[in-house]
Amino acid sequence: MKKIYLLSTVAALVITVRPFARNDSDNDDDDNQSPPPSSNLPAVSVNASDPVAFRGLSSGAFLLHRDRTNGDLAVNILLSGTAANGVDYTTIPGTVTIPAGFFSVGLAVNPLGSPLSMPDRSVTLTIETNAAYQVGHPSHASILIKANAYEDQAPVVTLTAPLDNTSVAAHSDVKIAADATDPNDSITKVSFYANDRFLGSDAAAPYSLTWSNVPAGTFSLFARAEDQFGKSTLSTAVHLTVTNPPPSTSTVALTTPAAGSSFPPGGNITLEAAVTGTAAVKSVSFYSGDKLLSTDDTAPYSFTWSNVAPGHYSLHAKLTEISGSVATSPSVKITVSNALPTVTITDPTNKAVFPGPQDVKITATATDPDGSVSKVTFYGDAKSLGSVTSAPYSVTWTNVHPGKHVLIATATDNFGGFSSSAITITVSNPPPSVTITSPSNNTVLTAPATLELKADASDANGLQYVSFWAGDHRFGQDTTAPYSLVVSNLAAGTYIFRAHAVDPFGQRSVSDPVEVIVK
């Protein structure tokens, strides 16, 4: 069992200068309607860079940020919430100064009081208006001060690399390392920050990462260690200055390939660069657009780009000197072309007619001039019937209904290029046959009359029904043979009866008329 410690921590206000851009995604609250910054005044905003503090164990932190660095800027702040300034946490002054040359300052919220006797409380920092600046977005942020549920100590973390006040050239790679320990629990991860920008985390000792292609500027580097219960500690800042190197005294040019060159798809393209000048060369990198292809650190500088897909490419080389200076070559545009495959439907022939419904076998031939056909896909009336990956290319479309249909075959090559071929076919549907067998023509009845109508009907595909009509009046239908219908209470008059036979595909035939006279 862990020992229970009663801690009463009194810590001084910690102000950490952070000279870089902020990330205000932590506090996306109701300040969305804040006015845009004035062109003459700096805009000041705040976020909670560490939104949770544990009594007696770890601190929280606010980050005040402005969008320009000229001159000292005194920012008025208001602290509110259920936590009392100087009672629940060490006193934070009502005015905080962002020094000249810096974008940000950090304000640590160090909880006071016993973790056993104090409930969870919150502190909210709000930027107050002032004639010297505009209030930006977000204008306020909150930190939760929680009781120490586990009564264990927070981790201890220290940055070990780089050393404080290190200076490097822009575009360098900087290794950041930290030592982290926890007396009671295990470290789950150590996260690294440059000002308030998250760089990445390491979950296993030794804790480190490499910050690549560092931009010019002044940075405060931090490490945050977190244990298995979520308690965390922020390290003391290490300051890093990144300077732009002097302009390169050398030039670099792509000598191969030549501008306007065209290559077949899937081949290998050799890139070669020549450097002119006396400066010591660290490396030459080859790019397609913004994508790094390879880096060579020994002359002659070259690279073989393998299995290049079809497309249009803009290539250039970048020279990096030992001093950190860089130079970029003019762009060279090349094309990797892809002749499309050809495909032909060989069976059935265009405009072929079939009795229907029936199964239709579709066959196609396909070739590709500079690669291979990866598949041929068949379509019937825009519906995929299936794909075939090797010759002979064919599928069977089953139970094709009567009507006109469009057949398409699409050949795709191994680079994604494709072409199609289309034909039309017709599946015919002979109409049904239908004849009224009773009553006979010119039958005479006495009103009110009862009459049984009978018909013979047939179709190669079967029938849905046979219906009986007199003029435009439909008396009814029968769905099974022998087809008949009894009609009652016929009033006096002359009736012209016809039978309609309908097959499963909607094809309709009408019988010859039969006249019945009711007196």
Structure description:
This protein is mainly β and 519 residues long. The protein has no helices and 45 strands. The strands form ten sheets. Strands 12, 14, 15, 17, 18 and 19 form a six-stranded mixed sheet that branches. It starts with 14 loop residues before the first strand and ends with a strand. 34% of the residues are buried.
CATH superfamily of the largest domain: CalX-beta domain
Note the overall shape.
elongated
Strand residue percentage:
over 45%
Using the 3D structure, state the CATH architecture of the largest domain: Sandwich
Q: Please, how many helices?
A: 0
**How many runs of DSSP E, i.e. beta strands?**
45
Structural class: mainly beta
As a percent range, the share of helical residues equals under 10%
Low-confidence stretches: 1-38
Q: Domains counted in the coordinates: how many?
A: 5
Mean pLDDT: 88
What kind of sheet is the major sheet?
6 strands, mixed
Quaternary form: single chain
Terminal CA distance: 111 Å
CATH class of the largest domain: Mainly Beta
Radius of gyration: 42 Å
The CATH topology of the largest domain comes to: Immunoglobulin-like
Which key terms come to mind for this protein?
519 residues; mainly beta; Immunoglobulin-like; six-stranded mixed β-sheet; 0% helix
